[in-house]
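Tutorial, part two.
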Amino acid sequence: MRPRRDRHRISLTLALATEVALLAPAAARAADPAPALAIDLGGAQLDLVLVKEGRFRQGSPPAEAGRGDDEAPREVTLSRGFYLGKVPVTVGQFKRFVEQTGYRTEAEVGASGGFGFDGKGLSQRKEFTWRAPGFPQTDQHPVTLVTFKDAGEFARWLTQRTGRAFDLPTEAQWEYAHRAGTQTRFYAGNDDAAAAAIGWFKGNAGSGTRPVGQKQPNAFGLHDMSGNVYEWCRDLYAPYAPGPAVDPEQTSAPGGDKPRRVLRGGSWLKDAKHLRAAARYRNDPGSRNADNGFRVVAALEASAPAAAAPSPAAPAGSARAPRSSSGSTAATVAFVGGGLVVASAVIGLIGVLVHRATRRKPMPGAPPGVTFRPQGDGFWLHAPPHLHGSVLHYRCLVKGAMRRTSVPIEASPRGQFVYTGGVPSAVEAEQLGAAAWAAAPSAAPPAAHAAAPRAAWGGQRSRERISSAPDVAVVAPFRGYPSAY
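Running the prediction step on this input gives:
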């Protein structure tokens, strides 16, 4: 009996050894992903580079030349590796996305277009879109005039197409990948001359973007991390939290500040100091500028089967429900549609009742000299120089909905365009930081302006008083803001 038992044990051992041998390659692949990833977009290819997990010092030392106040150093650990686009998303790659989905960017949908290059600088015109940024481009140039939403929709399309999670990188992922193990101002060195070796900027680009991949890559094999176009990150802009951080992502804006998304890398329109590894920038997520682009990040492994490539979207107004010989489809659609209408009406009635129960008068007064002018999907804000750098709290009526928010007042000879997503029918200033009132050479404190008319334009004001959150504390804006458009 014993020899038979021994043979049985040997058989089990061989079977287990065979199973382990078969499983070992798969485990090895999971632990050590391929150094590169290529995604077929149907006529174009998207190449991504493996960036392994690790630790680095984010930000810059106090003595770094060109340093911003918002670059406080901190130790950051990234616990998971990821794939990152080898270059910014190109015109050719974005074109495949548009052709296969019928997507229209926010600059194309909006009435005012985007901010393209007019020969002297960026100006807003209806004809400026990713297809026509104001300078010639080929399929190998980085796509521009894309908003944060446009970039996110491209990543969502890739996720559906591949079954692998795609997104925009966090600010920490972006800087870690940019540095590629370095701690110098640029990944090629500390001098401004190093910027010319790795990127396109105001000093060497001319009037527009350049084809991607022409400059020296970093140690990870990534091109154009400095210059050419600014790149959207997932984070909302805010000061870094103090102390070490693990996989940080900023998901809220500082108190009283308008939410703005982080942009990184510098651009063809900016000076060399903006190409530094630690340099930060930010803008409204609806901004569409001819030096803003993006690159994508991808998970190490696919999590779902790839979906079939979608057909181009049908023209607006041409979509129809599938026909049914029994008429059940039409009846179902009609029933559901009617239910939605009733539900919307009930929700709207509840909203009005709650609104009327909680309404309060807006804060009195408005700073003298502040004016608004509607245009397209936003309005132009004009303010005297002594108010630049202050936070203006305002309310506006867009598509029947009253919004209450704030915006830092920026210095601009043409005025400052504030994106609202639609044509505002009324805008009213409510409050301004106390520091700015005090700085005004002839301005009285806010209480003295209680009876002054609010700055407003266009049409009749809504007779409804808006419900509002508790009054925003009057504080100086975050001092570390980089300049914006």
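Helices lie at 2-31, 91-101, 106-109, 148-162, 171-179, 192-198, 328-358, 434-439. In part three we will examine how such features are distributed along the chain.
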